């Protein structure tokens, strides 16, 4: 994650030694909602161990991109591969893909009437057929990792938003995903809870997890991202290292966007 000089180019970042082979590949991906062309010829490769931050104005297609990667949203044309395999259309193969691709949303989507522990063990027990004792042992270890082990026997409503989001991260990790997608994971949180969630994500990045993170948190991008992708109107307009992007954006659209988020 340390690429040395601030002038490191995108190409150098993409060949940084800690990165493995391509894990998520999008080739000429297009997607429409009716007349609206929301993903336009998206070409993007995320390598094993890479942390990619996706940034851009509201409505630029960031969520659709994430949803396309785990096929919550079908695409109109192009190819998406996870670990070399094209996305399956449906059935058991699709369920397996969903297990490979963890997703954490803005809203935590925890089961309200189940305990934190049950929320985390449910997926492994149902989908991966892990036994109860083993699933609980791993769940507690994951909850510990994100700092909420002592909340295991509560229900979500008894937790703060920041704690719930960390439970959502543990729940995703329990499926042993190959890649984790985060779609604005801190944007629904009160400001004082943002850092505890970002810290858990930084730790995950440092452990080598492959991550695609939609966020405007520049501190996270600078600390953890290998690469920043700037989207506007369904296109990838610019990609660079965080340092390069935030200090020297090249396109007018990126300059305009950054001037808006930086003045707040
Ligand atoms: N299910 C949908 N049906 C119709 N339009 C949609 C749907 N989901 C998103 N859109 C539109 O697609 C565009 C991209 O949305 P989205 O991917 O959510 O952008 P972002 O996450 O960057 O804000 C927006 O104009 C949005 O209104
Ligand atoms: Mg969005």
UniProtKB/TrEMBL annotation:
Reactions catalysed, as given in the entry: a polar amino acid(out) + ATP + H2O = a polar amino acid(in) + ADP + phosphate + H(+)
GO annotations of cellular component type: plasma membrane
InterPro entries tied to this protein: AAA+_ATPase (IPR003593), ABC_ATPase_HisP-typ (IPR030679), ABC_transporter-like_ATP-bd (IPR003439), ABC_transporter-like_CS (IPR017871), MetN_ABC_transporter-like (IPR050086), P-loop_NTPase (IPR027417)
Molecular functions per Gene Ontology: ATP binding; ATP hydrolysis activity; ATPase-coupled polar amino acid-transporter activity
Gene3D superfamilies from the UniProt entry: P-loop containing nucleotide triphosphate hydrolases (3.40.50.300)
Record keywords, A-Z: Amino-acid transport, ATP-binding, Cell membrane, Hydrolase, Membrane, Nucleotide-binding, Transport
Main location: membrane
Entry EC number(s): 7.4.2.1
Membrane topology: Peripheral membrane protein
PROSITE patterns to which the protein is assigned, alphabetical: ABC_TRANSPORTER_1, ABC_TRANSPORTER_2
PANTHER family: AMINO ACID IMPORT ATP-BINDING PROTEIN, GLUTAMATE_ASPARTATE IMPORT ATP-BINDING PROTEIN GLTL
Family named by the database record: Belongs to the ABC transporter superfamily.
Name of the featured protein: ABC-type polar-amino-acid transporter
Protein source organism: Isoptericola variabilis (strain 225)
């Amino acid at each position: 994650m340390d690429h040395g000089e601030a002038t490191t180019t995108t190409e150098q970042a993409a060949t940084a030694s800690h990165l493995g082979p391509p894990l998520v590949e999008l080739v000429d991906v297009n997607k429409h909602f009716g007349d609206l062309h929301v993903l336009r010829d998206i070409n993007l490769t995320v390598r094993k161990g890479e942390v990619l931050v996706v940034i851009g104005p509201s409505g630029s297609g960031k969520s659709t991109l994430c949803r396309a990667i785990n096929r919550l949203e079908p695409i109109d044309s192009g190819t998406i591969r996870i670990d070399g395999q094209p996305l399956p259309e449906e059935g058991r193969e699709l369920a397996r893909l969903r297990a490979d691709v963890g997703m954490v949303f803005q809203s935590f989507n925890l089961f309200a009437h189940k305990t934190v522990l049950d929320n985390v063990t449910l997926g492994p027990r149902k989908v991966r057929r892990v036994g109860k004792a083993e699933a609980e042992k791993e769940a507690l270890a994951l909850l510990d990792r994100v700092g909420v082990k002592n909340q295991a026997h509560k229900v979500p409503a008894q937790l703060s938003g920041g704690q719930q989001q960390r439970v959502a991260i543990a729940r995703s990790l329990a499926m042993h995903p190959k890649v984790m997608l985060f779609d604005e994971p801190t944007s629904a949180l009160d400001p004082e809870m943002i850092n505890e969630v970002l810290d858990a994500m930084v730790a995950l990045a440092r452990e080598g997890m492959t991550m695609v993170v939609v966020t405007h948190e520049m501190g996270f991008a600078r600390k953890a991202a290998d690469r920043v992708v700037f989207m506007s109107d369904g296109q990838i307009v610019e990609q660079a290292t965080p340092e390069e992007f935030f200090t020297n954006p090249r396109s007018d659209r990126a300059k305009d966007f950054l001037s808006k988020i930086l003045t707040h």
